[in-house]
Every structure is written in C-alpha cells, then in structure tokens.
Amino acid sequence: MEMQYRPYESFKKLGKPLEGLDEIPIRGATGGEPQSRSTESIPDLKLGQLFKHHWKDWVVIVLLFITAVVLNVIYPFRRYIGSFNIDSVKYPHKDNTVPTWSVPIFAVLFPIFVFLGYFFKRRNVRDLHHAILGILTASFLTGVITEAIKNGVGRPRPDFFWRCFPDGNQMFDEITGNVLCHGTASVIKEGYKSFPSGHASWSFAGLGYLSFYLAGKVVVFDKRGFTWRLSLIVLPLLGAAMVAVSRVDDYWHYWQDVFVGGLLGLTVAYFCYKQHFPDFGDENSGHPHPHLHITLPLAPYVSEHDSLHPIHSTRPVINGRSHDGWANGGSYDIENGS
C-alpha cells in the first residue's frame, strides 16, 4: 500500500510541538530520497525566532565571557625562579606589536562583518545566526581554556627579568632563593602567563573559524581544482600565523607557547564550525544545519488522551512508537537518516 504523508502542522494537535520543528523546512510528501538543500524550500525566519530557540546557547556564551574575565583577574601560579635560571628569562621587555585590545577586533568583529556581508547578499537569517553563534562560542571557549591553562601553569615569559627587576637590581629570598620582585604588580602578574599564547589562540579561533566558513561557502573541495578558492581560505590563517609570530618577536612568548595556542584555537574553531555547518566535502557545504529533516507517514497515532499510550515527550507516537522508528513499514527521515 502506498504510504501517505501528513504535514507537520497536523501533529501540533498532539499538544506541545516538536522541539525545533516550528522553524524548519518539512520535506515534501512524495516519499523517496530526500531532496538536496539546493532545491529544498526553506522559509524565511526571523532572527528573534532563532534567538528564542537557541536561548540556552546564548546564555552559555554570556557565562563563557564572564568566566574568561574572572580567570583573567585571578593571579596565576607563581612558578619558582631562582638565581640559577634567571638568565633564561632575561630577554628585552618590549611593547606589543599587536595590542591586546586589537585582537577581538580582527579575530571576532572582522569575521562578523564578513558574515553580515554574506547575509545582505543572500538574506539567509539562519546562516547569519549560526555563524555568529559559532564564532562567539569558539572565541570565548578558547579564551576560557587559554586563561585556565595560563593560571595553572604559571610559566614566566621570556622577558620576566625586566618585569621583575625593572632597574636591573636582582633580589632573591635568602631562604628559598626565589625572586623578590619590585616591579609594577600588574606587569609582574602578566609575566607568569607565557603558556599558552592568548594572542595566538584567539587569533586562530576567530580567523580559523572565518577560514572554515569561507571554505564552506566557496566549496573548496569540490574536485574542480580552483586554486583561488584554496588561496582565499588560507589568507585568514596567514593573518593568525603572523600574529603568533609577532608574539615570539616581541619576546612575550616562546615558540612552544604560540604553537600550542594556535593549535588550541584552531581545534576549538573547527568543532564549533562543525556544530553548525556540514563538512567542506559535503554536497550541502556552506549551508547551516537545519536541525531536523523529518518525513511523517499518515498512520494512526495515539492521542494524548489514550491511557494505554500516554505522551511523555514532545515526539509523536505512531503505531505505538515514537518517530525514532516504528514498525509495520513506517518510515522517517531525520538528518538524512532512514
């Protein structure tokens, strides 16, 4: 017998709608293979709808930001530095080539301007929302991890000597042999935060996310061999790499600090991008995940008043089973499932 299909709206009669399905496209009623994203009808969404659906995610963003600020205020572990190894941290104390205040501008705000530019061209609200949510998650999560490791390790920066003894007069504890710094307190505090590099991790988190975003939009791995596409996605990574190199040139970090920081930021950026967008080699590369694709068969379903099959969740019950799967030839499609 040919299977018939019921649109999602009819299942609202069950009571509470399926979570997330009030704002996503529902597939056609012809059965067969799922349509591609290029031909799928995606309704226009309001940004407020997406904020409402992802309000928990935005709360997490705020909490991550607050946590990063608190971790930055906490005094890091004061690693032992004695007279026998003080010369290893005697590099010149210089100003930052890339100021700290500029990192959020080029690593977060600049990518967001790129997302906005794409939005004004395509008018895809879901793409804009997920892109911004993803990069903020990547940036603040990277910031929390970086600051936590900095505080726990307490590695002195290469220029720690001049932070501790700005006049060059060395002082050590007579009993422990540890340094007795007489420099500016805030400068000394920063002197214990060498590993990993925050500039490198933040730069690779933000610009790395931008690189992944561009890779998806231009379909970089479409097996057509366009070099300009690969060059386009390398540019943000090159910018992040130059920021990391500047940290070594300024004697604020060792090469290990920037290497680990960059790897950390890029890894977090990749997983945050994957949370909202498919792989670069996917046929839907560059399109944000639509949460759920679901095909519901027209079959007897249990009402909320059926005492034998009470509804305890937001999923419809069909033939005695939820839409996770059901017997007697029923079919469903969740994220291109079967």
TrEMBL record:
Keyword Ion transport found: no
Alphabetical list of SMART domains matching this protein: acidPPc
Domain Phosphatidic acid phosphatase type 2/haloperoxidase, chain residue ranges per copy: 130-273
Residues in the signal sequence: none
Mode of membrane association: Multi-pass membrane protein
Alphabetized GO MF terms: phosphatidate phosphatase activity
Alphabetical list of Gene3D superfamilies matching this protein: Phosphatidic acid phosphatase type 2/haloperoxidase
Keywords associated with the record: Hydrolase, Membrane, Transmembrane, Transmembrane helix
The keyword rRNA-binding is assigned to this record: no
Broad class of where this protein is predominantly found: membrane
GO cellular component, one term: membrane
One of the Pfam families matching this protein, by short name: PAP2
TM regions (residue ranges): 58-78, 98-119, 131-149, 199-216, 228-248, 254-273
Cellular compartment(s): Membrane
Family: Belongs to the PA-phosphatase related phosphoesterase family.
Protein name stated in the entry: Phosphatidic acid phosphatase type 2/haloperoxidase domain-containing protein
Organism this protein belongs to: Riccia fluitans
